[in-house]
Design brief:
Elements (H helix, E strand, L loop, with lengths): L1 H48 L4 E8 L12 E6 L2 E5 L5 H7 L7 E5 L11 H10 L7 E5 L2 H11 L1 H11 L12 E5 L8 E6 L2 E7 L9 E7 L2 E5 L7 H6 L5 E7 L1 H13 L3 H10 L6 H10 L4 E8 L5 H13 L5 E4 L4 E6 L2
Parallel strand pairs: 3-4, 4-5, 5-6, 10-11, 11-12, 12-13
Antiparallel strand pairs: 1-2, 1-14, 2-3, 7-8, 8-9, 9-10
Length: 350
């Protein structure tokens, strides 16, 4: 009897050992498979985006300061093997990784102005690009004030940088590539542009936009092999923006439907909330209305107009058509794209 019990216990132990070994091998295969799959996806995405035969625009964030389902404002442009990022609102760093963008390849960041929905995630963009393997200098370009902004982030991340290198070592986390440099510039008040960045045929111009009382505020124009992309930044209707957008292949612009925001303003007044009513009134003064934007794009002979940073945020075909498409397409006869987070636009090169 005792011998049978011993045999039974032995077989149970043997069975559990085999099961444990099998399960362990299964998890090993599962983890290896997931790592291989993730690596393959990232390598493929990087190869496509850094393809020098085309320009790729990725709308990494299309939101605004108002609550919505969208990541705050940011646009990535891949051109001639370079990764340029324009603005870095809240949530952009993780959004780029979820989109499998080659974050370690970011070579330059351009900030349009100092509202937080355009720079809140700048510290994370700088840090994550380094953590994920960036081994080249990163420069953040922007109007006067950009040095103070970047230095503030660098100071707050000082211990982060120190601990990462101390833990993983210089070979893995080389301290020479941590952080970022700045290129601070003053836009020309006459509306003309100045070259901010120039590398291997890629040229980025900066120009003044009207986002008063936010000064300075700028937009950017990217040019390469006869193709041009304009980033409006935040702006009211402006002759400066029209001038810099003339003949652009793509104008990526913020937009507001002011009649809808006026209704929101009145709604807050009706419930006796003067603070929010005042804010809704004020923001109409320094953003461009949908009809104004349509007229500007038509007058500037813009080929394709891309809407981002839309206020108010809307969902669905009916709302989008009524609030943005209809008023713009009444006056603008080029192509119109309503952006969403992750939207990709490819521009073939001659």
């Amino acid at each position: 009897m005792k011998s049978n019990q011993t045999k039974s216990l032995y077989f149970k132990i043997l069975f559990l050992s085999v099961c444990s070994l099998t399960l362990s091998c299964s998890w090993d295969r599962f983890v290896l498979s997931r790592v291989n799959e993730s690596t393959t996806v990232k390598v493929k995405a990087a190869k496509e985006l850094l393809d020098k035969d085309k320009i790729t625009i990725v709308l990494t964030g299309t939101g605004s300061p108002l609550p919505s389902e969208s990541i705050q404002n940011s646009t990535a442009i891949f051109v001639n093997g370079q990764f340029l990022l324009f603005d870095a609102g809240d949530g952009v760093a993780m959004a780029m990784e979820k989109l499998h963008l080659p974050v370690s390849e970011i070579g330059a960041v351009f900030i349009t102005h100092f509202h937080s929905d355009h720079f809140a995630d700048l510290g994370e963009v700088i840090d994550r690009s380094w953590l994920l393997g960036r081994q080249k200098p990163l420069t953040v370009h922007g109007p006067k004030g950009i040095s103070d902004l970047v230095n503030g982030f660098l100071k707050s991340y000082q211990l982060e940088y120190h601990y990462r290198t101390k833990h993983h070592g210089e070979a893995v986390m080389p301290s020479q590539w941590k952080g970022a440099k700045t290129n601070e510039f003053s836009p020309k008040s006459d509306g003309s542009s100045k070259i901010i960045y120039e590398k291997d045929g890629v040229v980025v111009h900066g120009f003044f936009v009207n986002h008063e009382p936010v000064e300075p505020a700028v937009g950017y124009r990217v040019e390469y092999k006869g193709k041009s992309i304009v980033i409006s930044g935040d702006t009211a209707n402006s002759e400066f923006l029209k001038k810099q957008s003339f003949g652009a292949d793509y104008l990526i612009s913020e937009v507001m439907n002011k009649s809808m925001i006026a209704k929101v303003e009145k709604a807050y007044e009706s419930i006796e909330n003067p603070r929010l009513a005042k804010i809704m009134k004020d923001i109409q003064l320094y953003h461009i209305d949908a009809t104004e934007l349509g007229n500007l794009a038509e007058a500037a002979k813009v080929k394709t107009l891309v809407l981002t940073h839309m206020i108010p945020f809307v969902k669905g075909y009916v709302q989008t058509k009524a609030i943005y498409k209809d008023p713009i397409q009444k006056v603008f006869h080029g192509e119109l794209i309503i952006a969403h987070d992750g939207k990709r636009i490819e521009i073939p090169l001659p």
